[in-house]
Amino acid sequence: MTKFNASLIAVMVAGGLFTVAAQAAVNNEKVFGAAYQPVASVPASQAQIVYYRTAQVAGSDATHIYVDGEYQSALLPGMFTTFCVSPGSHSLGGFMKDEPYYKGKEMQPYRDTFAGGKTYYVKVDPDALGRPLQVNLQQAQRELKILKAQAHTLSRASAVENCRYTAQPTMDYALSSDVLFNFGKAGRNDISNQGRQAISELIGKLNKDGVQLNRIQVIGHTDPIGKAATNLRLGQQRANTVRMLLIEGGLPARNLSASSAGSNETVVQCSGSRAEQISCNAPNRRVVVRVQTQ
Fold this sequence. Notes:
Elements: H1 6-14, H2 20-24, H3 29-32, E1 47-53, E2 63-67, E3 70-75, E4 79-85, E5 88-96, E6 110-114, E7 119-123, E8 133-135, H4 137-144, E9 148-149, E10 170-176, H5 177-180, H6 193-209, E11 216-221, H7 228-248, E12 256-262, H8 274-280, E13 286-292
Parallel strand pairs: 1-7, 4-9, 11-12
Antiparallel strand pairs: 1-4, 2-3, 2-5, 5-6, 7-8, 10-13, 11-13
Keywords: Cell outer membrane, Membrane, Signal
Subcellular location: Cell outer membrane
InterPro entries: Bact_OuterMem_StrucFunc, OMP_bac, OmpA-like, OmpA-like_sf
């Protein structure tokens, strides 16, 4: 990859001049921020907005983001920005190719009332003439997990505030249940060698990254095939097994809890024959290790 001067790129994006040179460095985490992690909650005095642009939005030009007609950020494909505003009515817009006059500031096509204590997920919609597309939590987290933060652009939006989080930030590590266990299995003797290796690697990563292990939640998720009560029990059994292996790997037992979401938090929807559903539902079968990072 061609190397670019980080300070020069920061100047370019701060001025709205997000160039192809900046885009070429989009995968450089030191320049453009870390990969997305689930955001924490905000107090009732704030509303939080996660605005993102997927890699499927074609074009090398930046999408300029405006809040109440003022510049907030510039997003290339595969980037997101997170910010807070006071509760109430605000306008949002995301415009491509509106330089050099930045007329997007005058064309705010979307206004809504944002409630305090809530987080809103919106994405760039290139076909909506600047109007963002609001999406639900499940879709947003599925799309955001491969995106990187836009960390080097200076917001000029006076409505934007620093978020005052009410919960500790967390990091999620998802382990595929299909890697850990055979279909429908959950016990210690059912876990595969590949699954044990995945858990060992996760323990090594947590120790290497120096993450503060104040609280770790192990959450079992299942697909929607079968009865809800059975899935809830299966998710709990799998979470219990993974928790036990994490403890045996040296993580502190007192800080580890296990719970089940059953099939209540699926990330994909499937249809077809039973065999087709089992294959399609693989992303739903997972165990998430959620680590409090502060």
